[in-house]
Amino acid sequence: MTPGLPPARLGDRSLFPDREPAAYLAHAAVSPPSLAARRAVIAHLGDLARRGAGAFGAAVEQRARLRSKLAAFLNAPEGTVALAQNTSVGVTDIALSIPWCAGNRVVLFRGEFPANVTPWQRAAALFSLEIVWCDADLWRTDPDAARAQLSDALSYGARVVAVSAVQFQTGHRMPLRELSDLAHAAGAELFVDAIQGLGAVPIDVEADGVDHLASGGHKWLMGVEGAGLLYARRPELHAPHLAGWLSHTEAFSFLSEGAGRLRYDRAFRDDALRFEGARPTRRATSRWRRASTSSRRSRPRRSTRTRTRTSTRSKRRWWSAASPASARRTRRVARASCRCCRPRGARRARDAARARGAGRGHVVPRRVPPLRAALAERRRARGARGARRGG
Hints:
Blueprint: H1 35-51, H2 56-74, E1 81-84, H3 87-97, E2 105-110, H4 118-127, E3 130-135, H5 138-141, H6 143-154, E4 160-164, H7 176-185, E5 189-193, E6 212-216, E7 228-232, H8 253-256, H9 282-298, H10 304-321, H11 324-336, H12 346-356, H13 371-390
Parallel strand pairs: 2-3, 2-4, 4-5, 5-6
Antiparallel strand pairs: 1-7, 6-7
Helix pairs in contact: 3-4, 10-13, 11-12
């Protein structure tokens, strides 16, 4: 309960005074933030505006409290939950950090939302994995056939089974406990994309046997976009491929403990916070883009129009200075190298040019003779005219 705000009650709209629809039923897509969520965001921005870097410590403590609450919400041990930007980031972090071996198999389900498919496909491409497909909707229509299909896929061995807690197309709640039992019996681990169900249906990672989980906070958790979580039962076994300075142990020591503490060989943390070290904010990214764009705009530009006129003028002078025989030869080359009628192969181009002759109306060749040759041709022409006059 937030001080100054009424408690949340079913059917009470007082926490959503700006919501326009009479009945909002799209929380499975995006939940409108409540007054409590909006005030929390505004309070954080206001603290940064007032204190700047002085607000960093309070933000770190707030993040730690949030991780503890999320761990309790999932019935997960402390240190196994990390904050992520959204479900896709959480799935990607897990998919790229599992210690894979070439040839490991990943079981995916057709009908899943792409956020729980694309990261595993990328992991398969990067680590030479094999993807095995099962039918997700079969668990709704024929559970016995679905169980047999998954058992057959796992009989050849698998490393991970990735499934959504609730299917986005049908709303069917998947039997996580049964899936985890089948996966663990085959030596595989269960990954759960929980965003379609977390907050609406109970998910207990211990009771359900979940090994990995990722979720965003903007659906049934009724948070804001850009705030999510991931869970790893054994985070110390993961090698974070997307790591940053906060992924290391004693990450702040070189800032708070004086000189001589700056090191680059510190080990990674052994908890889930090793996943949070490489998360640049969207604001920082947009600021970098604006800075790079402004620097490009500040560079002096060379006039394209002047450059085009100069090259055209040079070509015109070369054409006027050339002798008739040279012009005919150049037109043959131009026709042979024209994009619209150029035959393939150098010999075919030469034969075609000889057969067609020096036709007109084709593209001016890109490779014009060098200016030095054109000037030499002009000097020879002037010398010939001078010799005739002198004779």
